[in-house]
Design goal:
Number of domains: 2
CATH class of the largest domain: Mainly Alpha
Helix content: over 70%
Distance between the termini: 110 Å
CATH topology of the largest domain: Rhopdopsin 7-helix transmembrane proteins
């Protein structure tokens, strides 16, 4: 009997030891798995945003600071001057031409750049300098605003260029394609399209969504460039035909179309020059997945693109007498009020 109890006690101790060893083994395995998870999933990662790299922030400190200051100065200017352009066009019946409505759509995208994308950029760069990391809200606001606003900008540039091409080359079809109601519909479609494309980045296909955006932007730039070249060729021929010919109603109309076409070409040309760097950098790094040695390229390319928000109103104020007069009237009313 004593022998049986001793044997039973020995078996229980052995079982307890085995159970204890098993618990320790399972605990250690769980700890190892947790460590692996913490290594493989960086803190602060977010599936719908590209993972930022902060290990070389010290090399970007000066560039971040300078570009942030530039955007702090230009953002409020962009909002104010583009709001004046929109108000001038929509408050005056004779200015609500299809061409001017598309320019107002450009100005609206520039207002949103000044209200969302530029503040997002400023927050991003200053937080990067100060904390060597950027909070989710800043990254989300900046990413969404950038893709929506610049998508609207590129597609609207294409619409503006095509409108001028139809005006100088396919005059018979112009009224059917670019009536007031149709242009408003085009503007709404442009915004819906780009908001929808930006929303795809929240569907766990962020890389594909950004690739689609970049391809659409590239197509828009190519179509815009080709269309503007065709417009300038047609304008040159028209000027040669009108020069030295007696003044008629048809010739006066052609001269007006030529002036508008040249003004639009200047606006589109400045937009293309300032936007090509950011388009190239984004396509090179994010779509083709080539390596950038330093991220200062992004800072300067994005800042040049943001300067577009101020260029359109300046060109309109300089080249369009009716818009200039209406803006002056608005400012006088504000001062005298």
């Amino acid at each position: 009997m004593v022998h049986c109890r001793a044997k039973k006690s020995k078996i229980e101790r052995k079982a307890e030891k085995i159970a204890k060893d098993l618990v320790e083994t399972v605990s250690s395995q769980i700890a190892m798995d947790n460590n692996n998870i913490s290594v493989n999933i960086p803190p602060g990662s977010c599936y719908h945003l590209p993972d930022p790299i902060f290990d070389q922030v010290s090399q970007r400190f000066t560039t971040n600071l300078i570009t942030a200051i530039i955007n702090i100065v230009t953002a409020p200017v962009a909002v104010i001057v583009n709001a004046l352009v929109i108000t001038a066009i929509f408050s005056t019946s004779r200015l609500r031409t299809p061409s001017n409505l598309l320019i107002a759509c450009l100005a609206l995208s520039d207002v949103f750049v000044g209200l969302t994308a530029q503040p997002g950029y400023i927050t991003y760069r200053l937080m990067e300098n100060q904390h060597r990391s950027v909070a989710f809200f800043a990254r989300i606001i900046y990413c969404a605003a950038f893709y929506v606003c610049f998508g609207v900008l590129f597609t609207t540039l294409t619409a503006v260029s095509y409108e001028r091409f139809v005006a100088v080359r396919l005059r018979v079809r112009y009224n059917n394609l670019f009536s007031y109601s149709r242009v408003v519909k085009y503007m709404l479609d442009i915004w819906v399209l780009n908001v929808s494309l930006a929303a795809l980045q929240w569907a766990k296909i962020n890389h594909v969504a950004r690739g689609i955006h970049h391809v659409v932007w590239l197509i828009c730039l190519l179509v815009t460039g080709i269309t503007q070249v065709a417009v300038l060729i047609i304008v040159r021929r028209s000027r040669q035909q009108v020069h030295g010919v007696a003044e008629t109603i048809e010739n006066a109309r052609k001269q007006r179309e030529v002036k508008v076409a040249l003004r639009i070409s200047l606006i589109v040309g400045v937009y293309l020059i300032l936007n090509c760097p950011v388009m190239f950098v984004a396509f090179y790094h994010q779509t083709l997945e080539y390596n950038l040695k330093i991220y200062n390229y992004y800072s300067w390319a994005e800042t040049f693109a943001f300067l577009n928000s101020c260029s359109n109103p300046v060109i309109l104020f300089w080249k369009n007498q009716q818009v200039r007069q209406r803006i002056n009237d608005i400012l006088m009313n504000v001062v005298c009020w």
